[in-house]
Amino acid sequence: MTHPLASLRKSLACAYPAAASETIALGAPSLDRRLGGGILRAALHEAYAETDADAPAATGFALALARRAMAGAEKPLLWARQEALTSEAGAPYPPGLADIGLDPAAVAFIRVRDAREALQAGAEAGHCATVGATLIELFGEARAYDLTASRRLALAAAAAGAPIFITRVAASPAPSAAASRWLVRAAPSRALGANAPGSAAFEIFLLRRRGGAAGYAWRVEWNRDRGAFEDRTFGASPLSGAVASLPVGGAPGEGAPQTVRRKFG
Amino acid sequence: MTLADARARAPRLAVAQTDGDADERLMLWLAAFCEQFTPLVALDPPCGLMLDATGCAHLFGGEAAMRACVLQAMARLNFTGRVAVAGTPDAARALARFGAESVTPPGEDENVTRPLSIAALEAPRETSVALTRAGLTTLGDLADRSSAALTARFGAETMRRLTRILGREDARITPLRPLPECMVERRFAEPFLDLASIENVLRPLIAEAMGILEKRGEGGRAFEMRFFRTDGAVRALYFETGAPSRNVEALLRLFRLKAESLADPLDPGFGFDVIRFCVLRAEALAQSQIGFERQSAQESELADLIDRLAARFGRERVLRFAAHETHDPMRAAAYVYAAASPSSQPSPWEKPEPGEPPLRPLFLFDPPQPIETMAETPDGPPMHFKWRRVRHMIARAEGPERIAPEWWRDAVGRNRRTRDYYRLEDREGHRFWVFREGLYESETPAPRWFLHGLFA
Question: Do B240 and B284 fall within a single domain?
């Protein structure tokens, strides 16, 4: 007979993996240093779109993270998307998926009606060890996605050893069991020749990170050929006209604290 | 008798319109109920059911016992039935309607049906009148005449009927549902009520069916679990797998998911009499030793996941991307059911050129969204455009990428217009894929603009 305390310890160890557990590096050394090597692999991560128009950016960011997570392993991505998003931001287009470095053939896509179904699908997939990563996209203030639901997903991710990403559009950040929470906004790209739009660029704000400092802001570019993020926080292109985002709440002397622009709801 | 006449005789007569549809529904319901006796059940209009008892009677302890069992079940549902067992469907029908309901011993059809009145032929009125006038009152009388003369006088249909009733010619019934590949069932001495322990019943049931399939070297693709309730209601749960399967636990899990997702949950009521598991479709499945091949174990685990998701959300929601070889962006990608995936094939998707930015959007609108644009030159990219009441000031643009319509598809119409696609980025960094429809002046005087996709 196992001691009740032992089993409790075991489940706690499952729920809160040790800090030394495996991470997914983002590929940009400056970010990874701040994140302590990257984001946890067997955990739940959230990406909030700052405005409705940033929905593709949030999904793109999560897909890029999933691509990092799945690099080298021939495992599929399971993608559950709430149907309301299709009228809002369109339907996934496989050639575009290939253009950001994912193999569309290695994606199982589930169209779900509401948040509850999306979470069911995500949990089902999260439990399956053959899935490389799971992406769940929710639209609006989903009541089904509460603390309990997020805890369940976090446990599923921990058990399967693969990350679960949740993107949220038209929702404001709320407490959850996610290991990291990001706010994503589209950022002007570095122009190519003849002022053509370049690779996908995002402004990302780390709102929360379990067991670590949060409140950083970066501007990153997704380099599909390398399959890695690149830090463009200080090297913003001259044409963008936007102020480069600086770490917020970082160590003093690293830059003036900048208020993170947040428009919710 | 007219209605007025009937009312005069019985003043409290309840009158209702004939409802043929309701009658048919009731008969179908009864037919489903009777499937617990034999899988081959057919409707015998207007108010009969034909059960093919071939190879089933011994399960009930002989034909007489089976007949008693059917009668008892009907009585429990408050139906009075007339049940006859005979060698041919027509003989059974004639006996049930016009003769002594009983069990006809094999080969005795003719002797038993000969005394029946010619009404059993159910021939048109003129025919029966003519037969009676000729002094032919029983089927035996008719059977003794030369069939050629009778055929000439009363038609081939009546005579075929006669030979079938007499059992000289056999006819097959057309069952309501095709015979399953394999079928196992559990009958309960007492109605089964305990839904909580239903899996203890289903597991050996499924295992038994899988044993049968294994001997044949097959695996099931489509399955059905049928629950026959004591009160006559029949519930059927249908589920299928993406690949042939003999995995008992996986099938049980599919059943569980299906049962959970029912809008109207499985209710034993006063209990189930019979639970039946059918394999409706089977395909060849070689015996495999999963431990040897990790790759295939992984694939089958994924297939299991797809099956579970499909059982929960429906096949039309669990998808994968299929590529088409075409330059038309709308047709280049399709969504198909995930389980139909040809695994371990090279990816059909084109790898992007290194160094190129994403040329195709991550999300596509179908249909494209109309936008209001302002362009510097008629054939240049827009300076700004308005979409969903928001004005986007364009900071970067690339294009046009001219995509001509596939003229071999649409002879005429809107789809014939050439599209000039532009990749745009607004000042906030949102990236769009827009197109101008129709070549300026040569195809249309006022080209319209559409937003077709969004980049990450």
Answer: yes
B219 and B276 assigned to the same domain: yes
Instruction: Write out chain A residues lying below 8 Å of B357, CB-based.
Output: 189, 192, 196-199
- Could you tell me which of B77, B45, B23 has the C-alpha nearest to residue B176? B45
Give residue for tokens 């799971």.
A134
Tokens read off for B92: 């059974």
CA distance linking residue B22 with residue B28, whole number of Å? 10
**Contact yes or no for A198 and B357 at CB 8 A:** yes
Cis peptide preceding A92, ω within 30 of 0: no
Q: What backbone phi and psi angles, to 5 degrees, belong to B266? A: -65, 120
Chain A interface, best mutation among B321, B336, B392, B427, by max A CB count within 10 A? B321
What is the least distance, in Å, from the CA of A33 to any CA of chain B? 25
Closest C-alpha among B110, B111, B84, B81 to residue B95:
B84
Terminal-residue alpha carbon distance, chain B = 80
Q: Of B140, B165, B190, which residue constitutes the final position of a domain?
A: B165
- Tell me the ipTM for this assembly: 0.81
Residue A90 has pLDDT above 70, yes or no: yes
Please judge whether B430 and A57 are an interchain contact, meaning their C-beta atoms are less than 8 angstroms apart: yes
B13 and B88 fall within a common domain: yes
Q: Looking at CA atoms only, how far is residue B31 from chain A in angstroms?
A: 36
**What is the residue whose two structure tokens read 């006038």?**
B133
Residues 6+ apart with CB under 8 A from B346: none
Q: What CA–CA distances, in Å, run from A58 to A65, A173, B64?
A: 11, 13, 72
- Centre a 10 Å sphere on the Cβ of residue A143 and count the other Cβ atoms it contains: 10
Query: Of A145-154, B97-106, B155-164, B436-445, which has the strongest mean pLDDT?
Result: A145-154
Q: How far is B342 from chain A (nearest CA, A)?
A: 10
Identify the burial level of B388 via C-beta atoms within 10 angstroms of its C-beta, where 0-12 means exposed, 13-18 middle and 19 or more buried: exposed
Compute the average pLDDT of residues A177-190: 93
Residue B343 lies in a domain: no
Please indicate, yes or no, whether residues B403 and B296 belong to a single structural domain of this protein: no
Query: Cβ–Cβ of A99/B298 closer than 8 Å?
Result: no
* pLDDT tens digits along B240-299: 887 788 888 888 888 888 888 787 788 888 888 889 999 998 888 776 655 555 556 667
Report the CATH fold assignment for A22-187+195-231: Rossmann fold (3.40.50)
Residue B213 structure tokens? 């399939």
CB contact at 8 A, B40 and B11: no
Alpha-carbon torsion (A34, A40, A43, A48), positive or negative: positive
Q: What percent of chain A has pLDDT over 70?
A: 83
Q: Domain residue spans in chain A?
A: 22-187+195-231
Domain count, chain B: 3
Pairing of strands B272-284, B318-323: unpaired
Question: What is the DSSP code string of B38-55?
Answer: -S-EEEETTTEEEE--TT
- Distance between CA atoms of B428 and B53, rounded to whole angstroms? 76
Measured CA to CA, the distance from residue B231 to residue B74 in angstroms comes to 10
pLDDT greater than 90 at residue B450: yes
Res A258 pLDDT > 70: no
What are B126's two structure tokens? 């003129």
Spatial CA neighbour of B315 closest among B236, B252, B241: B241
E-strand spans in B230-332? 234-245, 272-284, 318-323
Instruction: Give me B188's structure tokens.
Output: 């309960």
| Helical packing angle, B198-216 and B248-260, nearest 10° | 130
Q: Of B350, B195, B344, which Cα lies nearest the Cα of A106? A: B344
CA–CA distance, A163 with A42 (Å, rounded to integer): 5
Residue A164 to residue A160: CA distance in whole angstroms: 10
What would the mean pLDDT of B157-185 be, rounded to a whole number?
85
Integer Cα distance of A156 and A42 in angstroms: 9
> Residue B430 domain-assigned?
yes
